[in-house]
Every structure is written in C-alpha cells, then in structure tokens.
Automatic annotation (TrEMBL):
DNA-binding found in the keyword field: yes
Lineage: Bacteria, Bacillati, Bacillota, Bacilli, Bacillales
Keywords: DNA-binding, Transcription, Transcription regulation
Limits of the Bacterial purine repressor N-terminal domain: 5-74
InterPro entries: PRTase-like (IPR029057), PRTase_dom (IPR000836), Pur/Pyrimidine_PRTase (IPR050118), PuR_N (IPR015265), PurR_Bsub (IPR010078), WH-like_DNA-bd_sf (IPR036388), WH_DNA-bd_sf (IPR036390)
Coiled coil: none
Subunit structure: Homodimer.
Domain Phosphoribosyltransferase, chain residue ranges per copy: 116-246
Annotated protein name in UniProt: Purine operon repressor, PurR
Length: 278
C-alpha cells in the first residue's frame, strides 16, 4: 500500500468522520490504512479536532481503553444556529405560504437539501449526547428532516405509518385522537423497524397541539422504547398542548388568513445550553 501524505490523510480522515458520525475508529485503523505511525495519526487527529472546534462543527471525542478510539460528535455553534433560525423565520413569514384553512405550505423548505441538511445538523447537535439509537418520524413532510438528523447522528430512521401495509410485515398499531380536531386515527410501526428497548428521537416538521407526536410516544412505549427527545422545525402557540418537552427551531405565533399575515419567532432551541463557542 502507498504511504499517504499528511495533507491527503487529513482530507480523507475528515471525510471519514463526517460520513460516519459517532462511529468509533481506532488509531490502529488509521495507522494501517494510511501506513503512518500512530504518533503521526494522533497529530492528525489533533488538527482535525481543532478545526472542528474552531469552526463550530463539533468535536472529536477520545474513548480510552483497549477497545477505545476516537469518534466525531456533530456540534453547532450559537452564531450559526442563530443565522439558520433567522433565515427560517424570514422564509416562514412569507404570506404566500398561507393555504386554505390556515395551513402553511412547507414543502419547498423541506425539499431544499441545503436547508434540510443544516436543520438536521442543528437538531442532531442538540441530541448528540443522548445516546440516540434511532430517529422516528411519521409519514409526512417531516421525513427529509428526519433523515437529515439521523445522518448526523449515524443512526437509522423508523417511519410510523397512518395505515399498515403488507410490505411492512408484522406491525404494532394504536388508535389516536388528534389534539386539535379530535379526529380518530391510527398509527402503525413495523416490528422490524425498531429494536425493543431502543432510545428513540422523534423528529417532525410542524407541531400544533402535538396529538400526532403524543401518539408516536404511546406507540413507542409498545416497543419498550425510551423517547429521549422530540425535535420539530416549527411549532404553533396553542393551549392544552399534549407534548410539553420538545425542541423547536421556530415558533409560528400568528397566522391571519384574512390579513395575509404570518408572524414567526425563534423557537426554544436557543434557550438550550450546550452550543459551541462562535
């Protein structure tokens, strides 16, 4: 095997970490792959860690012991988060988003891969130390955000269906009641899509009263799963919310269809500590 130059090693190692967040790499893995001494690899890792920290992208975490190594923990600094949220607030406040019934059009934002990737990075950073085993979402527009968040956590996605499908195999189904309209419905999840006892992170695009998310929490209890958190792109100000503990990027405080007015403010994510400096 060829001996890699340091510049090439740094690029390749950085790519490996970004592509495989939370995956544990041993020094021996890099030493053998790049035909470099472990001392040189350690120096490379220190450089990459400093860049990640200085740019607010996260950090490299060292795990001691014979079975230890180093892994990339995604992070986001407060300034970058503020810029993203400011952009989202501007986009969501466009009165052209108002649909009949006071609903908001969100598909363009959730179809923008650049914005979705940044939102996923931000949400993943909030829950990066919670030992997430899987991201769970419902079959709506929030699927792209769920996958983006999961990609930064290095975990799979489980999709809750509103009706069972033969291609899902054996499923668990529960009945639900919408928090706002009080409509009856059902939610189903394939038994093969989530391991029993998993630590699950629920991700969704928009939350009103929280009936759907409450239903997902109840469904996950059937898998003996632990819900470690809930993250949404936007929430609305409502009374009698069914979900109290969650992270939102933005909050829609007013939708006036007659006056064609939408008011959006930053969500509660900025109230949560743990951001990197910058």
């Amino acid at each position: 095997m060829k001996k890699w130059k340091r510049s090439s090693r740094l690029v390749q190692m950085t790519w490996e970490f970004i592509q495989h967040p939370h995956r544990l790499f041993s020094l021996g893995f890099f030493s053998e792959r790049y035909q470099a001494a472990k001392s040189s690899v350690s120096e490379d890792l220190a450089i990459i860690h400093d860049v990640f920290q200085n740019e607010g992208w996260g950090k490299l975490e060292t795990v001691p012991g014979a079975a230890g190594g180093v892994r990339y923990i995604p992070g986001m600094n407060r300034l970058a988060t503020q810029h993203l949220i400011h952009h989202l607030c501007q986009q969501l406040a466009d009165p052209g988003r108002i649909l009949p019934g006071g609903y908001l059009y969100l598909s363009d934002l959730l179809g923008d891969t650049t914005i979705v990737r940044k939102m996923g990075h931000t949400l993943a950073s909030v829950f990066s130390n919670d030992g997430v085993d899987a991201v769970v979402t419902v079959e709506t527009k929030g699927i792209p955000l769920a996958y983006a968040t999961a990609s930064h956590l290095g975990v799979p996605v489980a999709i809750v269906r509103r009706d069972s499908r033969i291609t899902e195999g054996s499923v668990v189904t529960i009945n639900t009641v919408s928090g706002s309209s009080k409509r009856l419905g059902s939610l189903s999840l394939s038994r093969r899509s989530l391991k029993e006892g998993a630590r699950a992170l629920i991700i969704d695009d928009f939350m009103k009263a929280g009936g759907t998310i409450r239903g997902m929490v109840d469904l996950l209890h059937e898998f003996r799963a632990e819900v470690v958190g809930v993250g949404v792109m936007a929430d609305a100000l409502v009374e009698d919310r069914l979900v109290q503990h969650y992270i939102s990027l933005t909050t829609v405080t007013e939708v006036d269809a007659e006056k064609r007015k939408i008011q959006v403010v930053p969500g509660n994510i900025l109230d949560r500590g743990g951001f990197q400096n910058g």
